[in-house]
Amino acid sequence: MDKRELLQLLRAVQSGEKTPEDALLHLKRSPFDDLGYAKVDNHREIRQGVPEVIYGQNKTPEQICGIVAKMRENGMQDILITRMSQTAAEILGSEEPTLEYHPIPKIGVVRRSPDRVLVGSIVVASGGTSDMAVCEEAALTAETMGNRVCRLYDVGVAGLHRLLANLDKLMQARVVIAVAGMEGALASVLGGLVDCPVIAVPTSVGYGANFGGLSALLSMLNSCASGVSVVNIDNGFGAGYLASMINKMESIKE
Predict the structure, then answer these.
(1) Cβ proximity of 148 and 121 under 8 Å
(2) Which residues form the PurE domain (predicted)?
(3) How far apart are CA 139 and CA 165, in angstroms?
């Protein structure tokens, strides 16, 4: 049950269409289901607006299937699974025909809402093509949560004219996600160009002195551009989630 459905239920009680006992019975479902290996949060969507997201890495295919089955049983849609292996996707897909699997970012989406209206404008920009897995994790996370996403890939500072050729798209954005490895300079450049929040995502792309993304992380944390926030190394999901929250706040104002 999401916030909209909860409000409909409460209004039905207010209007007399449902009795308080009927509503209580509907809400009696436990706030979480204990599967032994996982406790599925049934009320996450009521609290935060989106269902619980499944982190697939280090979970067995059987555990992922069990969690998804329980979430489906509870009527949840737009179920997002991050860092899911190809093997797990094949096993889940044999049980769940609605699964959409994206192998580059290793993301799966189950029961995507067919009538969801995408709002706002989030731009996901990458320094290079090698950053695409992290970019797609961010972009697909934001799209699954109901946001309109524009992708600008391979527009890093080594060829700044590629970025400047897309200024119109950047200026229309409510949030920009800047994904870059190496020295991570893209976030500062974008922060100095746009009038909206910039979420910087350092990636582990780079040669030895990159230290697995640490150099990009420190560069982004030390950005001289105002309005730049930073998530962890390779955390495309975290960037997409935060961008969705910011974008939705702007949409509510409208």
Answers:
(1) yes
(2) 120-252
(3) 21
Q: What pLDDT was estimated at residue 147?
A: 94
Of the candidates 244, 252, 242, the one whose C-alpha atom is nearest the C-alpha of residue 121 is 244
Could you tell me the pLDDT band of residue 14, with boundaries at 50, 70 and 90? confident
Written as six digits, the tokens of 201 are: 């995502």
DSSP string, 55-77: E-TT--HHHHHHHHHHHHHTT--
pTM of the model: 0.85
Asked if residues 149 and 139 have their Cβ atoms less than 8 Å apart, the reply is yes
Q: How many Å apart are CA 110 and CA 56, to the nearest integer?
A: 13
How many angstroms separate the CA atoms of 226 and 169, rounded? 20
Please state the separation of Cα 32 from the chain's center in Å.
Answer: 22
Condensed to tens digits (0 to 9), the pLDDT of residues 95-146 reads 999 999 999 999 999 999 888 888 899 999 999 999 999 999 999 999 999 9
